[in-house]
Each structure stands twice: as C-alpha cells, then as structure tokens.
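#dry-run=false #mode=assembly
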Amino acid sequence: MTASATHCFATEGLTKRFPRVTALDNLTVAAGTGVTGLVGANGAGKSTLIKILLGLLSPTSGRATVLGLDTATQGLEIRRAVGYMPEHDCLPPDMSATEFVVHMAQMSGLPRTAARERAADTLRHVGLDEERYRPMGGYSTGMRQRVKLAQALVHDPKLVFLDEPTNGLDPQGRDDMLALIRRIGTEFGISVLVTSHLLGELERVCDHVIVIDGGRLLRSSAIREFTRAEQTIAVEVEDGQQRLAERLSAGGETVSVQGRLLTVQVAADDPERTYDAVRDAVCDLGLSLLRLEQRRGRIEDVFKEPVA
Amino acid sequence: MTTEPTAVIHDIGYRHYDGVRLGRGRAALALGVQSLRGVFGLGRTIRAKIMPLLLVAIMLMPTVVSVGVMALANQFVMPYPNYAVFMQAVIAIFLAAQSPYLVAPDLRFRVLPLYLSRPLTVTDYVLAKLAALAVALFGLLAVPLTIEYVGELLVDLPGPPHTAEYLGALGGSVLYAVLLASLGIALASLTPRRGLGVAVVIAFYMFTAAVSGIFAGVLISSGRDDLSGWALLLNPFFLVDYAQSALFGTTPVNTESAPPGVASCLILLAVVALAVTGVLLRYRKAAS
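#status=ok
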C-alpha cells in the first residue's frame, strides 16, 4: 500500500485563489482514518477545501488526493466512494425523506431495490422514524440535518464529508448529532471529515483535528495533544477574586485573571493537586463559588498559540 | 437454568453495502425516468397531477372527435402532420407548466450540489432532464396521433390509409420534442422560481407567435409575400412544421411562400444547439 492510500485525504501546497480572495494558501495537510475535525472561523476555507477534495473545484496550484485518488483526474471515482453533507439546506420540500434518500442512493449508482433497503436502514440509523413518509417541508431543523446526513451515508461510502452538521441545532440536537458522528466513525467504520467553527464540540468526537485560518494551516494534531494543551479550569467567585488569585499563585499555581474569571493552569504532572488547591483556597477564604469548570478549548486559544 | 427465549430482537447494527454499484449512465437514466414520471405528476401530490392530466385530456379530445367523425360520417378530417400546429397553444401551456418543474426546484432548494457530489456530471444531469422533457412531449404528440391512426385503420375509410402522413407526423413529433424541450429547459433554468419560469416560457411562446404573425402579415400586406414564410419561422411550431415538410415530405400548414427546406432544418438545428449549449455552460458555471 502506498503512503497516500493509508490516508483518507492529503493535500500538498494546495492553493485556491478566487478573483477577490485567497481561500486556501499553500495548505499541506493529511488525515488518516477515523474522525477528523476541520476547524476554522467562517471564511477560513473549509467549504472550499471540501469542494476541491470532491473534485468539483480545481485548485489554483498544488494537488490533493482522497482515498489515494487524485482529485484533479479521478473526481468520479472519488465521488463514488465518498458522501457529502453540505452546510446549506438542500432538501426539496414536497418530497418525503424516504423518496429523497432512495432517489439520492440511485444517483450514487445503487439499483432501485437496494436503494430502498439502504434508505430505510440509513434513515433508521440517523433516527428518523414515522416522519420519514411526510413531506420534508414540515421538518424541524434537527430532522432536516438527519436527512442530509442520511443521503450522505446511503450508498455506504468509505469516507464522508460533513460540512457544519451541528449548524442551527439546539444543545440536545447538537449532542445527538455529535454522538451519531462518533458512531459513524467507530461502529459504522466510515471515516469522517467534519467541519465546525467550534473546536470545543469537535474535541468530543474527533481523533484528529486540523485547524485552518485564512486558508493556512494553523495546526494539525491528534486530539490528545489538544486537550493536554487545553488543561485549564475557569473559576468564578462572587467577590475577592484578587485574593483567590494571590492565594493560588502563592501556592505555586499558574493563574491569570480574565475579567470576572480566573483561569488556572492544571499542573501537567499532578492534575489533582490543582483541583484540591482551588477547592481549599475557596474554602479557606470563605468565598462564594459561582463557577468551576474545565475550559473547553476554543478556537481563539489555538489562534494564540504558535503554529505546531 | 434459564428458559430458552422464543423470540429475540437482534440489533444487527450498521450493515455495509457490498452489492452492485451501477455506472453513471444508469444513474442518469434513473434521474431521467424519475423526471419523466414527475412531468406527468406521477409520484407527486394530487395537485401536481391536475395540470398535466388535464392537458393530456385536452390533447386527446380532437383525436376522439376525429375518430368519431371518421366512424359516423366516413370522412377524414384531421391531417396528422398538422396536428401539432393546430394544438400549439395546448402544447405550449404544457411546456410552460412542466419544464420549470424539472429544473427550478433543484436550483431553488440547492439540490444540485448533491447530484454533483455523486458520480454524475453536469452534462449527465442536463441531458437527463432534457431527455425526460423531450420524451414527455413526444408522448403528448405521438399518443393522440397513434390513436387516430388506429381509429382510421379500424374504421377502414375508402381509399388507402394515410400511413406516410402518420409516419411523417411521428418524425415531426421527434423534432417538436427536441426543439421544445431545449427551449423549455433553457428558459426555465434562467430562474430558480417555478412560477416565474412558467411565465417566462409562456411569454416566450406568445411573443414569438405574435411577432411572427405580425411580421408575416405586414410582409404580405406590403406585397413581399415571398418573405412571409421566413417571418413564420420565428414561431417554433411553424419552424418545425416547415422542417417536417422538408424532411418527411408532409404538407405544411402555411403552404404559400415556404422558405427553403434546408433553411428551416438548419435554423432548427442551430436553435437546439444554441439552447443546449447555453444550458450546459450556465450549469457548468453554477457547479464550480
């Protein structure tokens, strides 16, 4: 097996310039099997990268491979083997989810009977029950996202590109969608490239995260390295945050004050010591503790760090 | 000791698909068949079925009357090759009502990117839609013609049956289908709004019909009768009528001052090529 075949996708010096903007700027990155997160602010070049990987858009320079196939010359083979869930709405309102997913399966080359079976299976897996026979015009955002996901999976691809699948979902819907993405990557055995502008939600489901900004690679690493770097806790007390900060600093903790929040670096060698120190300090000083939480890694934090 | 369960529900989990995967051609065929069914409202809501079925019924009416007259009065009343020209308003309404259905929703609801993320090219998509509309239009013309021909054979009028005319009309129906489908898709794909698409197509028909009529009238009244046939070519139905006459030897509706047959055929070909190329270029641009 060649080196590129073990990768889900790989790019080399990929650049895409539009008349007014440079969407991708000399991007060289690769991702293996499993769930890969692609994080970037809006306009960072995520959707452009997916379109190039699908072979729908040709790069200004550089090259890309998907499942070992060249995007410039083997677009059809790539599109046969991958699924794509776009960011935007793409469901005709007068069709039912079943009809639509069956139709999309046929468009991927499945015979009609197989398409029906696969559509029923896939809709069940994404959690759409009786409502799948109703016209999609009356669906909630959560249901629409599920149908969009189902049409990307119906032909049993080796790899799916999910563009902002949690967009517009409420917290419960977001959790469900993330759990589903995790299942696709593990239980279904389909590799996933999922984009988001929230690193926090991707760290829950991804094995690997790629961060891009302004079309350039900021960082690409396994999720463990991200969370290690992000081991901080946020503490909020009613009054006397200054006193608490001084007390913790005196105890040897790394503390910074950000408005009403104290951010405490968790000791890498002995995490429990930090948690104990915070608990004891709050208790001893008699402060009212309002909030104590693990800081979710946010994209802004990654942006502050030097490129790995 | 546990009792043996009589029935068990297994969660078999995710199953991979290892059956056949058909090629691009079959996917395009499936798209064409689904589109063709949709043109006649099949697999759609009751409301979507009303218009096409009503128009099909209207298209059949002259045939029924004609067969009736043949049976009762022993007279042949409706020449096959002129059927489409007589029914042009109905055919134009059918075209206007149904061609936006084929292309507008995919643009408006942005389904097109989903098609293109599959092993289907822009060309496959456009050709499947064109073919679906062309087959629908051919059926709309060929079915009444065939019913009338069968009626003629059964009634057994004095003299030989009009077989050559019937076959010529079928050939002409192919021309009508191709030209009208190209124009319909080209015009309807200008807008993602279905209602607007209907208006654009019907306005195009009314405009060309009116302008060709006015030009022809002015030319005749100013004594330039020899040019009036050229003016009629502006109307797509007269254009095909003349081309049909040139290719299959049928008698056109407007016999006086017909333009050379080669000209009609070339103009027909050019219009189809222009419309199809226009659609393909626009879709290619939209896809990237």
